[in-house]
Amino acid sequence: MGFLRRGQAPEQTFRDEAIRQLERQPGVVRVRRTGNLGLEIERAGDGPPGQIGLFNVWSDCEELSFADQRSMITQFLAAVATPVDVPETWAGARLLLRPVVLPVSSPVVHDPAMDVPSRPLLPFLAEVLAIDTELSLVFVTNDYLTQWGVSLAAALTEAHDNLGAAGLRVTTDDDVTDLYVVIGPDGYISSWLAAPTALWALAESVHLGAASAAASRGTVLVLAPDRDVAFLLDDRHLPTLHATLNLALETFREDRRRVSPVPYEVGPDGLMPWAPAPEHPLAEVVRQCKIELAGVEYHLQKQRLDELFPASGVDVFVASYLLENDADGIERSFCVWVQGVEAGLLPVTELVVLQDFAGEAFSVRWSDLHRLTNGMLRPEPGLDPPRWRISAWPSPTVLAALRMVAVPMENTL
After folding, report:
1. Is 337 left (phi over 0), alpha (psi -120 to 50) or beta?
2. CB atoms within 10 A of CB 108
3. Helices (DSSP H) in 192-322: which residue ranges?
């Protein structure tokens, strides 16, 4: 089960072993922790410190023995031991850039110490830049952009063009109707979420979603549940779509390199989360995909904030993103607003439970809470996924209005 030091989480001990091995490498001057599994490596010379992440290698060997974990670290560090020759000029760097799509919970996205600029892409997802080399992938930091004299937007445009030039490669299965499995380029399969024009062009070329004499026009969808898995299909063949949604959920739940189980609608102007009509036979499965992605991202964000706020001397209640069955037995997302909380941050959930000092509680839809509390909820700047700040408990008048639109919940508290 790996190697442990008293009082340390397993991944921290894993990180410390990587630091120990790095510090023994020739030319390494200093190794500094950046977040839980990120490292900054300063080498002899005038170049900027390098950044590496241990996230993927840890997920691959979390359950291995001490000897196997140490061997995996050695192999990984050997692959990145030679400092990547990052071009000093924009002319030399531009053709090596690739977009990388990550959940916003990734330390690469949210950890200021890593200094990797990102751009929001879709709910709970962001895109960053990487330098693609033969042996490794290096995330582009703000220092590199400054050195090259380009903006993040300009560099991402170049990265998208490079991904398109590499080619969107897919394969099919004769036994599955209208399902295209993305197979390349290696290491950047989920990156196609950042290149919807290429997805749309492929869909048009194979007539996905196209109207015919036998069927009306369908909706083209893409799913990328983890870094190395993506599917392109449309919504007209329900058995294929249902099986693909279930596979995406299963992959997302089991894979540490998860991206998103949500199906995204592909159009000539970009992507958006698919929102089928409530009467669609798979609407409930799609909703489940959305709340599971939100649940993972809000949970990881809460863990981070619960460590950050006390360390900074800030007293803020960070509400949990919870799941519970409603009166109809359907799983819903909810959070709890407790009377007496003077500073709190609520996640965006389907329902909000309001609990008073007496322990009495009722639930309302998020949209009704936002509408009836007359500006009491304020968006908290700088947080992704978004949270809303609460302070004063609603007045009796507002509570009465909220009770009028209460939604029954089973076993909420």
Report:
1. beta
2. 21
3. 196-205, 238-254, 283-311
How far apart CA 329 and CA 343 sit, in angstroms, is 33
Q: Closest Cα to residue 231, out of 270, 268, 260, 272?
A: 260
> Measuring CA to CA, how many Å separate 151 from each of 118, 119, 156, 356?
11, 12, 9, 50
102, β-bridge pairs: 126
Q: How far apart are CA 307 and CA 12, in angstroms?
A: 15
CA–chain centroid gap for 372, Å, is 31
Chain center to CA of 341:
29
Which pair of tokens denotes residue 216? 């009306």
Q: How far apart are CA 124 and CA 269, in angstroms?
A: 20
- Residues 18-77 have pLDDT tens digits of 888 888 888 888 888 876 677 878 877 756 677 777 777 877 777 787 778 888 888 878
Continuous segment of H or E residues that includes residue 335: strand 331-338
Instruction: Give the Cα separation of 289 and 311 in Å (integer).
Output: 34
What's the full length of the chain, in residues?
A: 413
Q: Are strands 351-355 and 331-338 parallel, antiparallel or unpaired?
A: parallel
Rg (CA), the chain: 24
The rounded distance, in Å, linking the Cα atoms of 88 and 94 is 11
- Comparing CA positions, the residue from 319, 331, 293, 321 lying closest to residue 409 is 331
Residue type at position 101: V
By percentage, how much of the chain surpasses pLDDT 70?
Answer: 91
CA 184 from centre of chain: 21
> What are the tens digits of pLDDT across the range 97-110?
999 999 999 988 98
List the structure tokens of 247: 């596979």
pTM exceeding 0.85: no
DSSP 40-103: EEEESSSSPPEEEE-HHHHHHHTTS-HHHHHHHHHHHHHHH-SPP---SSHHHHGGGEEEEEEE
Pair 191, 101: CB distance under 8 Å: yes
CA proximity to 302, closest of 350, 328, 336: 336
Is residue 210 within 8 A of residue 217, CB to CB? The reply is: yes
Q: Between the CA of residue 202 and those of 222, 239, 252, 259, 378, what are the distances in Å?
A: 12, 22, 25, 22, 42
